[in-house]
Amino acid sequence: MSGDHGHGDSQVNSGSKGSDTHKHKDKHKDKEHRHKDHKKDKEREKLKHGNSEHKDHSEKKHRDKDKEKLKHSNGSSDKHKEKHKEKDKDKEKRREEKIKSSHVDKPKKEKENGYVRDTSPAAIKSEPEEDNGFYPSPQHNKTSKREYDDEEFEYKPKKVKTEHDKKAKKRKHEYEEDEEEDEDIKPKKKTKDKKVAEGKKAKKEEEEKWKWWEEERSTDGSKWRFLEHKGPVFAPPYERMPDKVKFYYDGKPMKLNAPAEEVATFFGKMLDHEYTTKDIFRKNFYKDWRKEMTSEEKSKITDLNKCNFSEMNDFFKAQSEARKQMSKGEKLKIKEENERLLQEYGFCIMDNHKERIGNFRIEPPGLFRGRGDHPKMGMLKRCIRPQDIIINCSKDSKHPKPPPGTKWKEVRHDNKVTWLASWTENIQGSIKYIMLNPSSRIKGEKDWQKYETARRLKKCVDRIRTQYREDWKSKEMRIRQRAVALYFIDKLALRAGNEKEEGETADTVGCCSLRVEHIKLYPKMDDQEYVVEFDFLGKDSIRYYNKIPVEKRVFKNLQLFLENKQPEDDLFDRLNTSILNKHLQELMDGLTAKVFRTYNASITLQQQLKELACPDDSLPAKVLSYNRANRAVAILCNHQRAPPKTFEKSMQNLQTKIDEKQNQLSAARKQLKAAKADHKASHDDKSKKILEMKRKAVQRIDEQLMKLQVQATDREENKQIALGTSKLNYLDPRISVAWCKKWVVPIEKIYNKTQREKFAWAIDMAEKDYEF
DNA sequence: CAGATCACTTAGAAGATAGTTA
DNA sequence: TAACTATCTTCTAAGTGATCTG
């Protein structure tokens, strides 16, 4: 099968839907969706698993689910907030208790032994700064490692592997549980003494590349033993517009008070953005803006359409222009200031190591930019103050100081969580966190673990597939639904699809929350039977559109699920993510719906890399193959991007370059020919030299041309596909590392600096024969 | 047991920077 | 040497899923 059933016809879903009175559907319709082309369908086709046919069973009818739920009014956002407030106090009390107890029932002695000694702030602070500043110095490093060796400390480095070989293996197996072996354990069996003997610099480097993956993991559920940081960086306070920058109402200049002006500038900044043309955005903005106005302003300003923010907009444009035009010196100064801030606030100390913080800046106030048709777009995101922030750190660390004259909301010491600070955001009432960078131990370990879980799924996926196929025949509706949903999750890499509160967010769905209106069944379509067409908005309101032939039994089940339902009813009315995950948990420890995405993504990459392997390819061609494999995954996971605005142009530029190069090549070839003739005639050294030169030139140009052509292909195929997300979140980096090693491709061709930092563990541990 | 809450991962867009070219 | 553009980095929204709670 192939992609020829793709869609020049993106309206396919408007056919038989009959009445258009369902709000969900309407919402979808005025959206512009990003479409994918045939390629994608084709790729998907390739990627699916085998199938076979079974006979179908009849089934008892299911009851309709209570639809009232879907219909309650949603004008209750204020009520909602009140609720939040009231509950706040309660919540905090509860939490306090929780933390207290978690501290109490911890074996105190061990803990204190653990870190008072090892990670006292003083020990780290006293590190000589010249030592590149970032990392604890070698001396410290060594000391702490030695102390690590004391019994009962859990983060035992394995550098002393010779002595702790058993433990080393134990940990490995804990994770991998693979039939694999020891050969994985690398020969870094340096002895301590040897290390001491090594130069300071060497040791420094080693610390720079702390190999947390060679150490033991904590087993007691605590995420750290010691945590010290300086708290977040706050957004600078609002600066008034210069007087010359005027706001006009109804054509007349009007001076706004600071709060109203600030909010106005948020809007003014965005004037070029499509958001500001959307009704909901404008309505929400206007409503929140008015809250900042004085009563005088309120009575004057009664219509957003009469507001003119264009001078503000010009001002910001000029400002950013000016920034670009700044002299080198000025730019450097800013850079240095940023660097200083990063040094001071961008790192924390967690268990002996200086680790990079992911987002140490508090989100500045502004207008909420929800994705898709978000009902709250345009609302004011309020400024976060110290008294909104909860700090999390070690009791015995130097606590971060709030800015002068302010207080933190709370300082707590919860080592069951990984965040350093948190606050509650005012749009959805959700909690935001400050956490560590992906290169940190705490993130890396989790990431590694994620791929190990996916590898465990690999071992039992056949069994699970057999089982859900069996379940398609179940007498119970809920089991059939569960089985069909799981099939979609497995085959199509759909997300789980938690329920969401209606009216609070954009209307998007995942597998379990699919509605009748999101699929269409075609018993026959062209040369295929039992085709299901999916058309819905997924995470970030990215459209998922796909037509796939399914097994007859699945098809019949779907027909059954659709019986007597309205378009806005749930397709799987007897299923939700928690039911599904509970079931999965029983099938394999740690299995949840999202593991399938990870598994299928990684296994696809591995397969594709094998298939596309071509040993004789040039380096760029190999990289292209890799990108193609990556792309297959991105397509599977539906990772899309808006085609870059300059795409067409940049494609053209590239083509021009190619043409030029081609001309160059033919010119060089001519010259080579001439040189050959020359040499034949004279047979002297000089002509020989020239001949060689020309020959090399041709070769060089030819390579350059190839490279350009490959680049063009790659870019074209990438037009609306985003590779980054899968590379960063779904593909076991060890597959890529192994591939690089096998084909002698420098890892830099695949991962940039940030990515190499994130995947340092994989780069260090994967050998060329690594199997996912 | 359903809904709320919390912590954490996954996501595309925007913004910043680096590299290239006119 | 500015302008352009490709790539990297940051930002923060939007998911998942575990746990708590009434």
From TrEMBL:
Record-annotated active site: Y730
Keyword Protease: no
Record key words, sorted: Biological rhythms, Coiled coil, DNA-binding, Isomerase, Nucleus, Topoisomerase
Domain of life the protein comes from: Eukaryota
Stretches with biased composition (Basic residues): 22-39
Pfam families recorded: Topo_C_assoc, Topoisom_I, Topoisom_I_N
Composition bias, Basic and acidic residues: 40-115, 144-166, 194-208
Main location: nucleus
SUPFAM superfamilies: DNA breaking-rejoining enzymes (SSF56349), Eukaryotic DNA topoisomerase I, dispensable insert domain (SSF46596), Eukaryotic DNA topoisomerase I, N-terminal DNA-binding fragment (SSF56741)
Annotated region described as Disordered, given as residue ranges: 1-208
Catalytic activity: ATP-independent breakage of single-stranded DNA, followed by passage and rejoining
Function: Releases the supercoiling and torsional tension of DNA introduced during the DNA replication and transcription by transiently cleaving and rejoining one strand of the DNA duplex. Introduces a single-strand break via transesterification at the specific target site 5'-[CT]CCTTp site in duplex DNA. The scissile phosphodiester is attacked by the catalytic tyrosine of the enzyme, resulting in the formation of a DNA-(3'-phosphotyrosyl)-enzyme intermediate and the expulsion of a 5'-OH DNA strand. The free DNA strand then undergoes passage around the unbroken strand thus removing DNA supercoils.
PANTHER family, alphabetized: DNA TOPOISOMERASE 1, DNA TOPOISOMERASE I
Family designation: Belongs to the type IB topoisomerase family.
Full protein name: DNA topoisomerase I
Species this chain originates from: Cottoperca gobio
Record gene name: top1b
